[in-house]
Write a structure and sequence with these properties.
Two copies of one chain form a homodimer. The radius of gyration of chain A is 19 Å and the shape is globular. In chain A, a hairpin with an 8-residue loop joins β2 and β3. In chain A, α1 packs across α2. Chain A is built from six helices and ten strands. Chain A is an alpha+beta fold. Helix content of chain A is 24%, strand content 28%. Chains A and B meet through β4 of A and β4 of B.
């Protein structure tokens, strides 16, 4: 058996998230169905991590094993011929058998985009709309308190995983050149369930109630979910990248 | 009666073009229905020009007359409350009675975007896909022959309007920073029916058959539609802007 890593992107709008669920249309179902059609045997896949219903990915990684030989370009073409147009395979590569899409990942980069204008744009595909004026400098200041290694219990929705410590390498908010969008980028080694959306919800709470940016630190320290803001809508969230090497080069690259 | 100019944007994917047609869903129908709901009387609108089925607009302008007083912010909000989300009103202004959305327009800016990569993007909303590698330098060279005042008979689909002379102020092709898109910008005083799409179709023909960029000039001079390329797909086309002043300031602005 050979282990392959598959690199995909998808628009999450029409799916109930990435992970297989009974009687729901998910990204993993579509990928496994396409693999089964192509390789002519049932294939199980492991994703780098789950994305929620409606959440999109520019770059998601998964692995699977097969005894079949895969011709890279033919395979990419065939998969894209079978898959619905909102899911695309853009790369496939042979990996060592100890490669694991989830466990080998060193960092994940999530982006949350807010249309912050008086009107929505008909051209936005995965953007949250917020009509009241947000202050990106204050949001950026609040995000800085999350950098480094912390217990993120205050920002998680479920408690199924006992490990609550995550390391955040980048957390920033910027307004787009045209002034109409706020783009929040967060890069970390791992993320708890709904963590990015709860961080964004907390930023929105800080803005709406005009709290001090320092509130973010107090909420983090409290380790109490009820102090944080509501989970922000899934529609603004995109998994930008999953990295399997140290993230320093990646951070340099995205900050230029 | 007061004349108002309405500034709108729309994603054309779900519409049979901008102009009213019996038994078809069009942008003009949606706008006139919304105006009628709001102003409580039948309102006729005149658009700056028609956009084809599937074609989008970042900035389309139309005018209408009403005896009712319009409160700008309330009106924009109410219209956007009534309209489907793929059509947005972003401005309304009082005009002199001699203002005419179509006849007073000094220039139009169209953009045609081609995804030129081996895979489509799930995130593109109004982009044409072309898998074979295009040479944007050759395309740009071919476009330069269109600058200035010419008879564009070679690039029009129908012959209902006897005036065939248009003045082209800008015609350029550029590859996007990520290398995956070719963006064609054309600004002119007026455009014949399907003219931008036929120009793009001719660029694609020149690339596919590896013709000299000079072929564009020969096709233009021939004034014969059968020498030009096929009409390119509507999906890549967007009306970017309609201008009512001299275009020199606008051209400076988009080229910075």
């Amino acid at each position: 058996m050979t282990r392959y890593a598959l690199h995909i992107q998808y628009l999450g709008t029409n799916y109930r998230g990435s992970q297989k669920q009974p009687q729901e249309k998910t990204i993993q179902d579509e990928i496994e169905k396409a693999l089964c059609t192509l390789i002519k045997t049932k294939i199980s896949t492991i994703f780098s991590g789950r994305t929620d219903a409606l959440v999109s990915a520019y770059h998601q990684v998964l692995h699977f094993d097969t005894a079949n030989h895969i011709n890279k370009y033919k395979f990419i073409n065939s998969m894209n011929g079978i898959l619905p147009e909102d899911i695309r395979v853009f790369d496939v590569e042979i990996k060592d058998n100890n490669f694991h899409a989830q466990k080998s990942a060193k960092f994940r980069h999530y982006k949350y985009v807010i249309r912050n204008d008086i009107i929505k744009s008909p051209f936005d595909t995965n953007v949250f709309f917020c009509r009241y004026k947000l202050n990106e400098k204050r949001m950026n200041e609040a995000l800085k308190y999350l950098l480094g290694e912390h217990d993120f219990s205050a920002f998680k929705s479920r408690s199924d995983n006992p490990a609550k410590v995550c390391k955040i390498y980048l957390a920033q908010a910027k307004r787009s050149a045209d002034g109409k969008y706020i783009i929040i980028d967060i890069v970390g080694d791992r993320f708890l369930y709904n963590m990015v959306r709860t961080i964004v919800g907390t930023l929105l709470l800080i803005e709406k109630d005009n709290l001090e940016p320092l509130s973010m630190l107090n909420i983090l320290k409290s380790k109490n979910r009820s102090n944080a803001g509501a989970t922000a809508d899934a529609i603004g969230l995109t998994l930008v990248h999953v990295g399997y090497d140290d993230c320093s080069d990646y951070l340099k690259q995205i900050n230029t």
